[in-house]
Amino acid sequence: MESPSRLPFGSWPSPISAQSLVEGVSTVSDIFTDGDDIWWAESRPDEGGRTAIMLHQKGGQPREVTPPDANVRSRVHEYGGGAWFVADGSLYYVEFQDQRIRRISAEGQIDLLTPESPENQSWRFADGRIMPDGESIVCIREVHYHIDDETVLEPDNQIVSIPTDGSLEIKELVVGADFYAFPRPSPDGEFLAWVQWLHPSMPWYGTELWVGQIEDSHVIKAKKVEGGMEESIMQPEWSHDSDLFFLSDRTGWSNLYRFNPEGSLLECGGDFDIAGPLWGLGQSRYAITCNKEVLLAARNTHTDLLINSTTGSVVESWATIHSIRCLSSGVPIVVVSTHQSGPTVIQISPEQEIISHPKSHGLSNEYLPEPELHTFPSMDGGEAYALFYPPAHPNHVGLTDETPPLLVLAHGGPTGSARNELQLGLRYWTSRGWAVVDVNYRGSTGFGRAYMEELDGEWGIKDVEDCVAAADYLVSKGLADPERLAIKGGSAGGFTVLAALAFHSTFSAGASRYGVANLESLALDTHKFESRYLDRLIGIYPDERETYVERSPINHSEKFTCPMIILQGTDDAVVPQNQADHIVSALKEGEIPHSYLLFSGEGHGFRKAENIVAALEAEYSFFAQIFGFDPSDQIQQIEIVRGD
Predict the structure, then answer these.
(1) Do 429 and 494 fall into the same domain?
(2) DSSP secondary structure code for residue 465 in this structure
(3) Same domain flag for 444 and 342
(4) Where in the sequence is the domain holding 540, given as residue range(s)?
(5) What is the tens place of the pLDDT at every residue in 157-201?
(6) Contact 386, 407 (CB under 8 A)
(7) pLDDT at residue number 607
(8) Domain for residue 446, yes or no?
(9) CA-CA distance, 582 to 556, in Å (whole number)?
(10) Which of 73, 126, 450, 566 is deepest in the core (most CB within 10 A)?
């Protein structure tokens, strides 16, 4: 066997191209079960980023149920989620183009169940379930008002009932709260459970569990039964005999409880989180079998465990468990990922069976070693966590007299976490001789509520310090080149990038995707779901306006000294384009080398294959030019605007 050849770090030839991230690739994002049938959603970048719904029936082959031009995606909360469900052989889904709910019967007939939005309004729907009698569905409706250019009305969120007979009549069931999630009817149709919360809370800070009685298509005697401003309640689910289960982080960790009026009972608990942050509706982190066993996905610092709460035993573990459901027979179905394979649909018993697997990437595991979990000291005496990926290539190693360039990744949210799964976009870098560190800075989820709350009032401080400290730590260990440190992030992670480049001198280059540049503008010009998010991360606006101004990178543009690439979508309703425009103007004025890619028609995150490819290749070309090495790939060299 030949020894690996030595080549300069950062420019190794690699079989992982940007095109391989999207070509023929589909990613499973959610699953449902209906009897013995298994359904899942597939996002398809090379089909314009649309989401299709697939069905696997026992003994058959998977097939798409949605029409070839359908795009199943809700815009509730802008982030969507919960855009489809199944019942009695029929698929109910929200079409992205018009946000109306459609039903596809087992025979393939398509019926519209919601009308066109009335004049001066637009309606969005999500997170639906069928009522036990099959005569209606309950779901969330978000009503947007379009009065005139001068009048701004906040969208109205409701729980509504929609008949399945096609009459298009919609009845409001629950109103008054700012947000709703998980409307779930009991199996006997007598009760409705749901989660709600009010401004300024976010669902990971404080929510309430409510239950009401269903009578004559109305919800009566509704009352709060659990939760509050400092307890996050998630995913209420009914057992077959109408016991109500839910997730709560009242102990500091998101654990499983069974409701009891005299005091809810802990069903499965420990120093692990079951619920994740509710950025998208419809999450399913546990499932109740027909014999009342509960199977749940528990997240710890380095892996996800599938636990049988009845026996307390660990059934299996994967890097990430995305979703879990059960067949009517009680057999669990999961969507899981490892660091060698993307989201895969697996039937757990009687023997594990892969129902759907991602397209083969054809890579040996030598390109895809497990990341190293590091705990490292931060700048103020605290500790933070990171997943470290050294350069990995079976045929190449670096030169003996150099250490690799390092790419620091700042995840979005900021209430979120580094993705613990196969990411070909990340391995694109490591297979070329880069080291990558994905930082779970203080404020990240999956490490308990106390760790998440460390970012309260400290966004733009602790997250930035932890990313800087991660780079310094790896340099001190001889694992990264101190002269070639880059940082990259999107959305909230983009803000961390911009703040790191404005307030610290550690990095030599940065890439911001749809990053927040002006906190004050974000507080005044973002969508309803996040409109009060910064109250807790920064402070109440305008009372603490000085803090907003002080922490906004755009107000410190004179401190930008290192090159940057900025990437933005024109249709972003979460972080509007003007945020990117302001940063680019500042870079031009300061004569800082930079590139700006603006993607027409893209929102908050890039979904179209051509844009995913262009963004990654542009970042690589940009860093290669800044760090002075020649890419082995035949990619288009991005133009860098430099000072006169």
Answers:
(1) yes
(2) H
(3) no
(4) 378-384+402-627
(5) 999 999 999 999 999 999 999 999 999 999 999 999 999 999 999
(6) no
(7) 86
(8) yes
(9) 12
(10) 126
**Within a domain: residue 575?**
yes
Query: Within this chain, do residues 407 and 554 fall inside the same structural domain, yes or no?
Result: yes
Q: Please report, in angstroms and rounded to a whole number, the separation of the first and last CA atoms in the chain.
A: 52
Q: Do the domain assignments include residue 596?
A: yes
Number of domains in the chain: 2
Per-residue tokens: 360: 């083969």
Give, as one character, the DSSP assignment of residue 2.
Answer: P
330 belongs to a structural domain: yes
Structure tokens at 400: 């003996």
Q: Does 350 share its domain with 419?
A: no
Please compute the mean of the pLDDT values over residues 37-49 and round it to a whole number. Answer: 93
- Which of the residue ranges 246-255, 525-534, 630-639 has the most confident prediction, judged by mean pLDDT? 246-255
Q: How confident is the model at residue 63 (pLDDT cuts 50, 70, 90)?
A: very high
Torsion of CA 566, 571, 575, 579, to 10 degrees: 50
The predicted-structure confidence for 340-386, as pLDDT tens digits, reads as follows 999 999 999 888 999 999 988 999 999 999 999 999 999 888 899 99
Angstrom CA distances, 623 to 8, 281, 494, 585, 617, stand at: 15, 36, 16, 21, 10
The span from the CA of 122 to the CA of 376, in Å, is 48
Q: For the segment 195-234, what is each residue's pLDDT rounded down to a tens digit?
A: 999 999 999 999 999 999 999 889 999 999 999 999 999 9
Closest CA to 417 of 273, 308, 312, 234: 273
Residues with Cβ within 8 Å of 630's Cβ and at least 6 positions away in sequence, in order, are 11, 624
Looking at the structure, do residues 328 and 408 belong to the same domain, yes or no? no
Indicate whether this model's pTM tops 0.85. yes
Largest CA distance in the chain: 78
What whole-number distance in Å separates Cα of residue 170 and Cα of residue 128? Answer: 13
Instruction: Report the CATH number that the domain containing residue 503 is assigned in CATH.
Output: 3.40.50.1820
Two structure tokens written together for 495? 């803000």
Q: Is the pLDDT of residue 644 over 60?
A: no
